[in-house]
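Workshop exercise sheet. Pairs work together: one partner reads the sequence aloud, the other fills in the structure field after running the prediction. Swap roles for the next sheet.
Pair: D.N. / O.F.
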Amino acid sequence: MSSSSRPPEQPEAPHLDIGELEEAEQALKQELRTTESALGEKTTSKSKSSLATALLAAPGMLWMTFFLIAPVIFIVLVSFWTPKLGGFEEAWTLDNYDRLFNSSTYWNVLKQSVFNSLIVVGATFVIGFPVAYFLSFKVTNLRNQLALFILALAPFWTSALIRAIAWRGPLMGRNGAINEILLQIGIINEPLDILSFSNFSVVLAMIQLYVLFMITPLFFMLAQVDRSSLEASRDLGANWFQSFREVIVPQIMPGVVIGSIFVFVLSMGEFATVRLVGGNTVGSVGTWVRLEWENLLFPQAAASAVILILVMMVGVLVMLRFANLREDL
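Structure field:
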């Protein structure tokens, strides 16, 4: 190596300009202020949106509070008050519930009401599902779907009381159309008493009254079933039953739960249909409450109603276990 060779020169260390540092610091502060301002505007916008939502929901909440929540609270309070001749006094007591818990008649009526309601729920599903399935899958034209659905809703154009009276008179009873037809074709030799003022006739009447409450949610859920998933299941070799079980049932379960809740709650609280179709031979919790109310036993009637509400709440909670409505809808 030549003695004249020099070591390689080291690169100079970078020089920091104070002016550039100050400019960068100012830019960073400006960006931070802009970001804080944007976040503040977003928070303000969110608070304004929440306020607007609360104002829009206020009329409905006031309506529900005044006509639903407040009456229920009042019924619960009255159920703990002491009855007296022709009314009650605001003296707290548990005698009203003690009387019900020791009444075998009341519990038999309650069990019969629950049993009838479960039968009505099952029967309305068995009848309503084929109707909803036909409207959703077999009727391809939207206009025809809506026309047939409106036609199915035609019974709602009259009150439930009128439909119950019409069901009892021309159809049921010893001289009703059903007995007459069975006599004419020779299936029976004398009219069937089961069709007149019986628990069987009450259940049939409630099925006829509430089947549309099952058809409606089933129809809307079946209309939303993903057709491509059905085609994929068929391509994978699934038969109709497998496609129904694995594809259709999970997607329509919210509709089944909603329809079941409607039918169960309505049939549990029924008293007009029971009184008209069943006469004095069939009882329900609704007729029990009405009888106590007519006899001016208001605290006892309130206690019976509270137990009915609790039983319905338990039934609804059990049904809600079969579907997560918040996620599935």
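Discussion prompt: The chain has two domains: 22-79, 95-328. What would you look at next?
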